[in-house]
Write a structure and sequence with these properties.
Oligomer: homotrimer
Largest interface: A-B, 46 and 44 residues
Structural class of chain A: alpha/beta
Strand content of chain A: 25-35%
Number of strands of chain A: 36
Shape of chain A: flat
Distance between the termini of chain A: 72 Å
Number of helices of chain A: 5
Amino acid sequence: MEPIYLSSIIDMLGITNPITRDFPIASLTPLEQGGSEDISYIDQPKYFALLSSSQVGAVLVRERDYLAHKELFPPHIQALFVPNPHLAFAKLSQCFAISEFANPLEPTLYDPSKPTDSQSAHIHPSAQIMQGVHIGDGVHIGARTCIMPGVVLSDGVHIGDDCKIYPNVVIYRQSIIGDRVNIHAGSVIGSDGFGYAHTDSGEHCKIEHNGIVKIGDDVEIGASVTIDRAVFGVTMIKRGSKIDNLVQIGHNCIIGENSLLVSQVGLAGSTTTGRNVIMGGQAGTGGHIHIGDFVQIAGRGAVGKNLPPHTKWGGHPLMPLDEWMKFYVSLRRMLKKS
Amino acid sequence: MEPIYLSSIIDMLGITNPITRDFPIASLTPLEQGGSEDISYIDQPKYFALLSSSQVGAVLVRERDYLAHKELFPPHIQALFVPNPHLAFAKLSQCFAISEFANPLEPTLYDPSKPTDSQSAHIHPSAQIMQGVHIGDGVHIGARTCIMPGVVLSDGVHIGDDCKIYPNVVIYRQSIIGDRVNIHAGSVIGSDGFGYAHTDSGEHCKIEHNGIVKIGDDVEIGASVTIDRAVFGVTMIKRGSKIDNLVQIGHNCIIGENSLLVSQVGLAGSTTTGRNVIMGGQAGTGGHIHIGDFVQIAGRGAVGKNLPPHTKWGGHPLMPLDEWMKFYVSLRRMLKKS
Amino acid sequence: MEPIYLSSIIDMLGITNPITRDFPIASLTPLEQGGSEDISYIDQPKYFALLSSSQVGAVLVRERDYLAHKELFPPHIQALFVPNPHLAFAKLSQCFAISEFANPLEPTLYDPSKPTDSQSAHIHPSAQIMQGVHIGDGVHIGARTCIMPGVVLSDGVHIGDDCKIYPNVVIYRQSIIGDRVNIHAGSVIGSDGFGYAHTDSGEHCKIEHNGIVKIGDDVEIGASVTIDRAVFGVTMIKRGSKIDNLVQIGHNCIIGENSLLVSQVGLAGSTTTGRNVIMGGQAGTGGHIHIGDFVQIAGRGAVGKNLPPHTKWGGHPLMPLDEWMKFYVSLRRMLKKS
């Protein structure tokens, strides 16, 4: 891909101040992760505090917000004035979108008698690739792994040893799957996260999700599960976790080791859990929440805030499980009395 | 298809009165939409009011209901007496069912070196049809659209320009997809609606859904979403709307422009929304409801009635969002006091 | 498969007492179903009462539980002492796991001009197998059944007459599908149940589900539905039931005749229903519950206990429908007064 220079995006993003240093943009990153050729954005005042330790080369920001926090900008970070930083970030993300298949018109159907050069190089001789499997460029498949018919592995997918990938699973580009992972039929790993910036007229501008999904060793994923990839970095399911059918894992979620997510659970974006968390069927969470180690959520529980380790919860709104078990009994009793 | 004459369905439907004019039945329609060769049915008294402006040729109706509303029947509409109009309608719908593939034993696998006549006729030269795509008769694929492996497009599907149809998506017959539409892996567009008539003995008789799904421009649909086609007419997702993973859209729903439906939302049949509606994760609706422009439903909100524009709601049962935010706090306080 | 002798699993399971009779293990079964070459386990005291009528050859049990109930063991049942019977059972189940495809490297893609010997023997000449269908060993397909592109049928699947199996459906090994069954696109029948035993250190050991799924005549299954197979025996959907999109049916569930499960319903494992049960959208159940004949559950209803026939329910926690309809009205009135 041709490098995209900062100077070339001024018009597209509507940057209103002159740039002080031009550079080829490496990527979009959060403030705390980027380097001198990366770009970030600030949409809310709370993020200005991160500037002092940030190494990014430039930040998209509203002019008035910049002026109010000017002293927090270190000399190595350029402020780029835009009317809507989130929208500018979304537009810029589209320049860095990665295709599922760099060469869509080349063969993807795996043919053991004549795999493409790319395919042959990375498939362990003991892997069992059944008929009807589509494999993109640079895919790695480990020892004794079985890939069943109808599976589609986009460019750069990496699958470890001793996995079973059941029929019609789709794994999006660059996803990383550990060893001894089972993924049941119809599940989708690595699809775009649900993230949009909004225009003044109420239209939604897609934020390209350029991160990936990473699945740890010994994870089992049920049928028709959806796990979105990260906007930056990774959505991660850590070692030993088990996910039931029809579960939704949003972009940038991190599920701790040995957790159990029962059927139809839904996790909104950027929610993280500790280890050995259990969520009952149809439970759900808001976004940007942390659930501590060994927390248990009863079926249908709706998590809207951070939860400390070793606690149990239920209901919507969420209450400590003990309270939830008695709450409606008490209400019914009170109603009868009144 | 051979025309089906009204006279030929008398026995099948158990019509108990003589017909006054025979005609080849064009289709089944709602009272307000049909013409002189269409048939409709009346199952509930409130629909008799629509007869005066209806142009249909005949109506399935209970004899006793007819006798009670005889004066409302214009001379051009025949009343056809049946014991259970909904059941008769269901049986008749089965005569008009349309196959996914008119020629199932002909090749459907797209082969760029020798597409079938039907396939080659409608695929833009700049479209990218990857390996392993199945295409029915009369499918149209627009410029620069990319169809990824494992996608199945039934007869008559129309896809616009610049779309991305991800692996293993299934689009049922005659669905219409606009320009710049993304549909993520495993989603199903145009499946049969969940509609049955019921016999006296408690069996369910399938109502064939002979409508279609229409997706507007700039719509994005997540992974493993299901959108059912209409019983008549269209299920529609209007321009600019974004639908997250594992969402269910029932038959005959209409989603207004630029709406956002977060993961695991479920809309029952015939529910419609205005523009820029937002429904949080796992929210749901009953059927035959209208949600006004710019309405916001919190996650898990359960919509059971029409909602006026520019309002915010949450909870189950649904309450104004402000009330819902305080409701449980107040209940818990009251319980502590008591 | 080589027979597995009881004597060969002593070390693997950590059995601490000497065995008294060796035998080739036929299978793992519940206490009440097995024969003299089957093995069962007891994890909870309530199951000791089943020993007197059981015919199994051996039972995995904690030594201290055995000593407390020694007199209940008939002479033909060996007690096998293990520290964690559920975990030992899980490990043993893995020895009896059945592959989806016994011969994954043989062709599975159905080619009408040269089906494999196994395929040709069991496909009715009037069945329509479209292009792009994968068929395992010993699959049976009945008269006039249509199998659409992208469908994967694992070894031993049996499909009756006049079925429509829509694109990209996956049916796991040995599932039995009746006559006149429709299964819509993307659904998964017979995937592994969500069952694990737990180690002391909080890891989860997979219980292989060696049962099957059985679907009765005249059943319709929507799009992206998941139905797990049984741990032993069958998960069953009985004749005439209709299941909407995105429904989850757990392992060992039994759905009675002519039931209706609306979209996004979730049933936990081993829940059973009588006939003509109706569950509204997004309703759910706990596990090991029985719902009586003709019960109706309102949308989003959460069933946590057995329900008697001919009753109506709603809410979470579940209440009689009448009470649920008034409950929140009363609460709001009470709050206004206070």
